[in-house]
Design brief:
Shape: extended
Number of helices: 12
Distance between the termini: 53 Å
Oligomer: single chain
Order of helices and strands: EEHHHEEEHEEEEEHHEHHHHHH
Radius of gyration: 32 Å
């Protein structure tokens, strides 16, 4: 049994679980989890429920039973009341529990806010013209040639871009520290691999030169015993290698590409850059259209939705930091910021993300946009073409989550096409 009441922003569902229903839920929890418990004198999973309760406590199955029965009632309520649209998972509070009367619990949740759409057509946003310059083509060819450069040992002084093979030994206050010593370390000057200021002090040295390099570890350095401290690195230059760029001519192009001449390669590079520029302009146009539509809509976003989104943003940022060998605490220490300040800075992005999702969902609902099998097949085919795999291989290997991803992408493709058509 349940009763429901709501305000425009919040819903409250009071659930009553009768004694018989609660007892059934506890028994089901026992049957599902009994294999986890070790009870002397019984094989694992064979101990009677009462014995497990006497061993581990009368409430051992309470949490599992409570979660199951509340979840079941909540799902049943939502299926019977399609008009109720929670914006988040409910906060559950147990009001009372007695052996003879069962359980009374209250579920409180924010409701999806009302979205007032603005204009979808006649928008000011326009597609930007694209143009590829001769300089951009030359830069692309130069980068390609740079990727085919080689290095030759030299007796000349180190310059930016050279490789210097060095021995180094670092110390702080005259004491060597762990990880501060190496031999024959090949360092690209200008790569910013080492502490800021280290590589610049090698410039001008030659093979056989020795030098004490003075640097200061960043305040947020991951090794706390070194953070913010000045250090001295005694180095010896063992080898200097200079980058030798290839001559960009017909021979180089025919040796390294499918083209025979430099002119043919230039035409291909220009064509590729133009396609990329048009694709980027298209993406920018689509994003700008959505931004203009979202800015023209009215919606009062529940704090809980924004709070959840900002924590999602921070969690994603922490994951990216971890790939760089950093953690959020050290990163914030380096910036001189608190976690509260960092969260506040990302709140506008969180609010924009939530508002955008709500607005797009409203457009989809009002215009009854949906994904057909043809739409889904096209999305999968586009993915397969992009990554050079067979369409059937992609389809055959899809998990439920991956299928949901492609369905969502197909829906977004249809939504964007719908918006662009209204502003053609």
């Amino acid at each position: 049994m349940h009763t429901y009441e709501n305000t425009p922003k919040e819903g409250k569902l009071k659930i009553t679980i009768a004694k018989e229903e609660w007892e059934k839920a506890v028994e089901e929890a026992y049957q599902k989890t009994k294999g986890k418990y070790n009870v002397q004198g019984f094989r694992k999973g064979k101990a009677p429920r009462r014995v497990i309760e006497q061993t581990y406590g009368d409430t051992i199955f309470f949490d599992d039973a409570f979660e199951e029965v509340v979840s079941k009632e909540y799902s049943k309520f939502l299926s019977e009341h399609k008009e109720v649209k929670p914006a988040e998972a409910p906060h559950v509070e147990m009001n009372s529990f007695t052996a003879d009367k069962g359980i009374v619990a209250t579920l409180t949740f924010a409701l999806m806010p009302e979205v007032k759409l603005g204009a979808l057509s006649g928008l000011k946003t326009k597609m930007k013209e694209t143009k590829v310059t001769a300089k951009q083509v030359e830069e692309a060819i130069s980068n390609f040639a740079n990727s085919h450069s080689r290095y030759e040992e030299t007796d000349k002084p180190v310059e930016n871009g050279d490789f210097a093979t060095i021995d180094f030994s670092g110390s702080v206050d005259g004491v060597k520290f762990e990880g501060g010593t190496a031999e024959n370390y090949r360092l690209e000057i200008g790569s910013h691999t080492f502490i800021e200021g280290f590589e610049e002090q090698i410039i001008g040295l030659k093979k056989g030169d020795k030098k004490d390099i003075n640097v200061t570890f960043p305040a947020g350095y991951q090794a706390e015993n070194l953070a913010g401290k000045p250090a001295v690195f005694a180095i010896t230059v063992n080898k200097v290698e200079k980058k030798i760029l290839p001559k960009i001519d017909d021979k180089f192009i025919s040796d390294t590409t499918e083209f025979e001449t430099l002119d043919e390669y230039k035409a291909s590079v220009k064509d590729t850059l133009e396609k990329r520029a048009k694709q980027q302009a298209e993406r920018d146009y689509e994003a700008a259209l959505i931004d203009e539509i979202v800015d023209g809509c009215e919606v009062e976003i529940p704090h809980s939705m924004t709070h959840h989104e900002v924590h999602h943003i921070i969690h994603d940022f922490e994951h990216r930091l971890a790939h760089q060998g950093l953690d959020l605490k050290s990163y914030l220490s380096y910036l001189g910021k608190t976690e509260e300040e960092f969260e506040a800075e990302r709140m506008p992005d969180a609010e924009k993300n939530v508002k955008t999702r709500l607005v797009l969902q409203k457009i989809i609902e009002e215009n009854k946009l949906s994904v057909s099998q043809k739409d889904l097949d096209a999305e999968i085919a586009n993915y397969a073409n992009t990554y050079g795999v067979k369409v059937e291989d992609v389809k055959n290997g899809l998990s439920n989550d991956e299928l949901a991803y492609f369905e969502n992408q197909a829906l977004m493709t249809k939504l964007i096409a719908f918006i662009k058509e209204k502003n053609a």
